[in-house]
Amino acid sequence: MSRRPKQGPNGAGDGPATHPLRFGYGTNGLADLRLDDALALLADLGYDGVGLTLDHMHLDPLADDLAARTRRLARRLDTLGLGVTVETGARYVLDPRRKHGPSLLDPDPQDRARRTGLLLRAVDVAAELGAHAVHCFSGVTPGGTDEDTAWKRLAEALAPVLDAAATAGVPLAVEPEPGHLLATVADFHTLRGALGDPEHLGLTLDIGHCQCLEPLPPADCVRAAAPWLRHVQIEDMRRGVHEHLPFGDGEIDFPPVLKALAATGYQGLTVVELPRHSHAGPHYAERSLPFLRRAAPAPPPPRTNRSGEPSATH
Prior knowledge:
Keywords: Isomerase
Number of helices: 9
InterPro entries: IolE/XylAMocC-like (IPR050312), Xyl_isomerase-like_sf (IPR036237), Xyl_isomerase-like_TIM-brl (IPR013022)
Radius of gyration: 19 Å
Protein name: Sugar phosphate isomerase/epimerase
Region (Disordered): 1-20, 286-314
GO molecular function, one term: isomerase activity
Low-confidence stretches: 1-19
């Protein structure tokens, strides 16, 4: 089904990146721009890719012409040279009255099925675009639901999505989200164990969330999560406060984090996640990439042959 070259399960592409890490910007932080304008902006600024949130203002996952629009988008991404990951964190795409509702944990099986259906559409979109992962999260445990029931619902709701991801060859990357049932990296491993450690289940690691509530410092979180990393989101944050902040406004020391990330060999996109700054999205997109490139480790020097000339194979 995919019309673009598929990437490996750890986000690795077919060839070496020109920079050790590949940076993208999330469209949920550019919600006031038309999708084509947002993509052109990111390409002009020098981003390597885009974190595409499926939502009504950009690529509506419920639109009747989704398949045709996705094919057009694939061609546009190719023209601009942008990689992509597919994100499913739109606030009201399924329910205009409930933020992120319905979830995979809702008591009503039909509501859970609607969220599963959205994720299945996301896998189809990701396969068509050649995305390196599909992102998702568990949702908040509903009132009156015990934890064992919530974990059972989550595993059952994700099972068909994982089957579809395996068929499409696109990893499903679950994000630990503060306040959700699956809130930490340890919770991700709980889910992984409950599902039997499926090959196409991976992790979305949000660097800000590591600062917010993980027991390890962010750089150590990266190293610990490395075998399962399929998608990375990044922004600044303060300890104990779940508020996505522009770089420099929080407490994170980014050079050690990005050094650790580069050392894992991760080659998927590292996507800036500033949804609450969408009102000034172009400004923050322009600011964020130079900050990240300054904080990232320098590219390795090209290999040379014995004469000191660059090797013909690099």
